[in-house]
Prior knowledge:
Chain B is an all-alpha fold. In chain B, 79% of the residues lie in helices and 0% in strands.
Amino acid sequence: xxxxxxxxxxxxxxxIWQAVCSLGLxxxxxxASPINIVRAATSxxxxxxxxxxxxxxxxxxxxxxxxxxxxxxxxxxxxxELLARATAPILSSILAVPLVVWYPILMVWxxxxxxxxxxxxxxxxxxxxALATLNAVQHYDRRYVTLARAMGANTVQLFVRFIIPMxxxxxxxxxxxxxxxxxxxxxxxxxxxSTAGLGFLISYYRTMFDTGHVYLGISxxxxxxxxxxxxxxxxxxxxxxxxxxELSARTSx
Amino acid sequence: xxxxxxxxxxxxxxxxxPFIVLRIALILLILGFWEFAPRFNxxxxxxxxxxxxxxxxxxxxxxxxxxxxxxLATAGRVVLAFVIAAPISVVIGIIIAETVFLDRIVSPYIxxxxxxxxxxxxxxxxxxxxxxxxxxxxxxxxxxxLVVLINxxxxxxxxxxxxxxxxxxxxxxxxxxYWKFYVPAMLPSLLTGxxxxxxxxxxxxxxxxxxxxxxxxxxxxxxxxxSFRMKxxxxxVLLISICTIxxxxxxxxxxxxxxxxRASLSxx
Amino acid sequence: xxxxIEVIKVGKTYPHPSxxxxxxxxxxxxVEDGQFVSIVGPSGCGKSTxxxxxSGLLNATDGEVKVDGRLVTSPVPGTIAVVFQEALxxxxxxxxxxVELPLELRGVATEQRRRRSLEMLDLVxxxxxxxxxxxxLSGGMRQRVSIARGLAPDPxxxxxxxxxxxxxxxxxxxxxxxxxxxxxxxxxxxxxxxHSLSEAIYLSDVVEVMGxxxxxxxxxxxxxxxxxxxxxxxxxxxxxxxxxRIWHLIGDQAGxxxx
Lengths: 253, 268, 259
């Protein structure tokens, strides 16, 4: 479907949405009409803008932490076969645990301020990223290291031109999952217990049954995820040739 | 490899491979730290009660009606959501995957939905269904449905088309083809979807209970946090963690067993 | 003719709980400048290990390898090029970029290395494929890119470990002729490891025949066939006799897999 067709479709859906609400086909207590959302936005935009900024900062911090810790630990564990085989199942088992139930414990230890959310976000994203990095480092094709040595590459060149490009596709896949977990984690944490941020506003207006503002908050949260996804996709595209080529090389063998 | 001395050989048979030893050692180290650090006051015992205290508290909790009621409420919602949503999603998934035109139309939207964090929509569910069991079960159902749907479609697509050819050349009837070829080929990926669905189901129900609920483990944990009841919190959280890990490993083991014919390089 | 490579009593021993494993034992031979030498032998005789030692990727436990009178203990990328059985091209780089790689690693200027790489790709007959990615190339083409990459730094010596092993018979024969053509044009010293006796005899001046357990040189066979070689020589009596001789040398060893 062409771009214009997609935009037209979106606008059409928006119109239907508004029509359904205006005609009273659906209760305004459950669904807010687009107009109500815009109304909420115009009346409370400083509040929501501030919350958007606050939450975005927390998410950024969480992502940096999750990426940094995840890649470093994953690479360290992956560099030794013994460590990798011993710890990989532990990491992957932890992925099954609903980390959200650990958040109240974190709240008791660190309070309900920004720190607890950032830490929680970091932890949420850490495990998939560490696991992916571990696998990437363990399983890249060692024959290319021999090739690099034969060509006289020094250690820096070996890493930058051989090892990193080879491991990147797998690591980026992990980054995608981990980043999603971090974003969701921080927003949920804000919804559960917070004094600021988008999640807090969503919860606050929910208790007031103010659908307009709740939908506004949700839309903004969705906007954040959308932007982040866009960023990750462009990151992937930048290296994307590697990934798609690697995949197609494997399948064409 | 050349043979060892007889004594060495017997010893090698008894000692597990080094990476398993390391894994067990790491786990024991962490558990040991949990047990002894609070005891020797390396860590504040009020904030971080020792493992034995926590386990003991957990056993005590099982005698309390309120805890049992909450446990039952949560488990009930999880199971109900799964039992209703999973089969329906599998069926719909198979239908979509087998119908080319449906597949083309619907698939992009399903993948789009996957990119959206479902937790954000919790307030809408509350607006629509209140904060009782109905709301939590339906919320859990949406979690199950999406993941199972996607994985079922992938499972159907993963059946090598060569199977059909081979089956027909044997003169198999369509029913035979379906049960003897398709289903076993789909099963591992299907099971993956069900396993992930269950995990997301548990997360969904617990988040909903922590957010706004009158009962359930999630609500219990959150209320304990307000009164700083660390022992009870850690006990329940430990219970949930162990149970989810156990179920996950069991299902994964079953998946691998069913899928052992797959020559997978990157499967983990 | 100068002796470019001298292999002096090279041995490789691996420690093992139940006793040392002698992968290579007392290997000595020399290679003259511009010669084409093949090394053949049964599976597991240590041909690849020997090549790794000759190229400096591995260290011998006994003896030494000298190139131009200098000891080889680590790779010498400017002098010795290695071509492996799998082409090992970087999948995210084009054929041209792959050929440029060794020059890039050594800091050669862009303009220069581009020119040189295009030359090499022309030499192996792949000018039409410079912009393609490895997954778009056939097995034979990939191996040719790999050879071009090896030749890019203009090494004196090219060592190849069963470079045509993963190719089908027709392509293999064609590649052999290609290799001869390249060799005649560039006059490099070539060491080729192969398990195909016919290939070894057809291409080389000298064939070192190895045996296993332990890996050692059984005999050095000079190939007195006229150059340039033609495929119909493979049916000649001389060729047959050489092949028989080598075949028997190897065949007397247990567990041989030779064609």
